[in-house]
């Protein structure tokens, strides 16, 4: 179920399974427990188009720190059920459906979640986590988010696209790619043009995973996914109001200063609005903080060790 390669070893002791949601979607999942005493559980919430194997390196570090780890693929991506006939289309019918995934995972791994929970969320996973915290403020003791998807840079820069997306969905095109979109196959993406990482070795490692397991790959989002993401972004002020009143008291956000995927300005505004959220910005990196050079990853781990680890 999990792909292991010499360049990307799977941490020992993985327990894998398929978790079925309330609406019948099967989610690929995996869990690990540390060899020594357990200080808590990491609940990992991936970004769009990601998959469990991408985080083996990070999972190993969490295990070394004494955390159990839960990692899973969201519906419509990775090794979980795809939602459209074309499996390469990144789609969601309603952004709330991701909460069904999270609820199913929490129920399946309830025995691990009895420990103090540290949520780790990247990009889209960050938005899903924030919406979950609005409904369940005690979901986690603390949270770490990297480059959370609080706005999408392209839509922020070219707001007219929002009207195009909404109109296309109204006329029944929600399952389609955006009109005139450029083909961006995950199999042929060039390192020099990628907006995700400046580290060639980790970029090529992730590309090798997809070439070896093409069923894990995902293409561009559909118009429906984009419309639902826009709606979630529009709801963010209500989420912030809720989090001002309740939720984890310790949230660490680590993000690029100039993200080309999510909007850095939105991240700064969000962090400024909440007293218990601390922002660490890193210059001259791309969207995927944990896929960057070792020196960048060291900044991430140092911030987590200083600001979050003492809570567990």
Describe the structure.
By secondary structure, the protein is of the alpha/beta class. The protein has a single domain, classed as Rossmann fold (3-Layer(aba) Sandwich), CATH 3.40.50. 35% of the residues lie in helices and 15% in strands. It contains ten helices and eight strands. It has an eight-stranded mixed sheet with strand order 1-2-4-3-5-6-7-8, sandwiched between helices. Strand 1 and strand 2 form a beta hairpin. Helix 5 crosses helix 7. The radius of gyration is 18 Å and the shape is globular. The mean pLDDT is 96.
What characteristics describe this protein?
8-stranded mixed beta sheet, 8 strands, 35% helix
Kindly estimate the percentage of residues that lie in beta strands according to DSSP.
Answer: 15-25%
By helix and strand content, what is the structural category?
alpha/beta
Could you state the order of secondary-structure elements as H and E? Answer: EEEHEHEHEHHHHHEHEH
Q: What is the fold named in CATH at topology level?
A: Rossmann fold
Give the second-level CATH assignment, the architecture. Answer: 3-Layer(aba) Sandwich
Calculate the mean pLDDT score and round it.
96
Number of domains: 1
The count of strands amounts to: 8
Largest sheet: 8 strands, mixed
Shape: globular
**Which runs of at least 5 residues are low in confidence (pLDDT < 50)?**
none
Strand order of the largest sheet: 1-2-4-3-5-6-7-8
């Amino acid at each position: 179920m999990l792909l292991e390669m010499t360049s990307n070893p799977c941490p020992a002791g993985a327990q894998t399974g398929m978790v079925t949601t309330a609406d019948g979607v099967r989610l690929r999942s995996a869990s690990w427990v540390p060899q020594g005493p357990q200080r808590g559980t990491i609940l990992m919430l991936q970004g769009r188009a990601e998959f469990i194997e991408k985080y083996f390196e990070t999972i190993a570090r969490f295990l070394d720190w004494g955390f159990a780890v839960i990692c899973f693929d969201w519906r419509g991506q990775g090794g979980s059920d795809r939602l459209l006939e074309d499996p390469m289309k990144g789609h969601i019918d309603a952004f709330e459906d991701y909460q069904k995934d999270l609820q199913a995972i929490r129920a399946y791994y309830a025995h691990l979640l009895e420990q103090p929970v540290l949520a780790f969320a990247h990009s889209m996973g960050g938005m899903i986590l924030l919406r979950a915290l609005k409904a369940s403020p005690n979901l986690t003791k603390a949270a770490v988010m990297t480059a959370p998807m609080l706005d999408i840079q392209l839509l922020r820069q070219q707001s007219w696209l929002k009207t195009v997306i909404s109109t296309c969905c109204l006329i029944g095109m929600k399952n389609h790619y955006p009109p005139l979109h450029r083909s961006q196959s995950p199999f042929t993406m060039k390192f020099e043009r990628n907006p995700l990482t400046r580290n060639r070795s980790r970029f090529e490692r992730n590309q090798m995973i997809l070439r070896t397991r093409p069923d894990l790959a995902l293409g561009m989002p559909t118009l429906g996914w984009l419309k639902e993401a826009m709606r979630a972004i529009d709801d963010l002020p209500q989420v912030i109001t809720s989090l001002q009143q309740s939720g984890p008291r310790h949230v660490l956000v680590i993000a690029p200063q100039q993200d080309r995927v999510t909007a850095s300005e939105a991240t700064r505004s969000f962090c400024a609005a909440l007293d218990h959220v601390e922002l660490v910005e890193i210059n001259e990196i791309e969207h995927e903080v944990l896929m960057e050079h070792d020196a960048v990853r060291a900044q991430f781990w140092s911030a987590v060790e200083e600001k979050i680890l003492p809570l567990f």
